[in-house]
Amino acid sequence: MAPLKGVRIVPYHKDSVYLIHWLGMVEVMNIEPKPGIPPSAGHLSELVGRLQGGAADAIVRSAYQDPKAAVWLSEKTRIPVIELPYTVGGTPGAKDLFGLFDDSIARLNKVKK
Hints:
alpha/beta, 4-stranded parallel beta sheet, 4 helices
């Protein structure tokens, strides 16, 4: 987990705040302007402007979240999207609690700083 310390991410939602804190990652901004409010075209355009020049290492979304905004933002900024399971059963690798953590960390470790 040590390589994740200082990795700058753009989560879709504030639901990963404890994970970010635990791993020592940095939350740059969120795709949702406010928790539960889908991003508007204007908000996404603002994010593109703020993310130019390498301001983040990855865009992170949970398996249950609509991928459209994250994929669009990734295409515009060339920042990779990482899908996390969020809960047991969220991905094939998250079969139990240990698998949830192992799968999440393995996916996050693919981020290039």
